[in-house]
Amino acid sequence: MLGVERDETIELSGANAPKLKLRLVTYRLSKTKSYRYLTSRFELDPLTVVRLYLYRWDIELFIGWIKGHLQFDHWYSQCENGVLIQLYAGLITFLLLKLFSALAQSSRFKVLNHRLQVKPKERLSRTRTGLFNLFNNP
Question: How far apart are CA 76 and CA 85, in angstroms?
Answer without folding.
Answer: 10
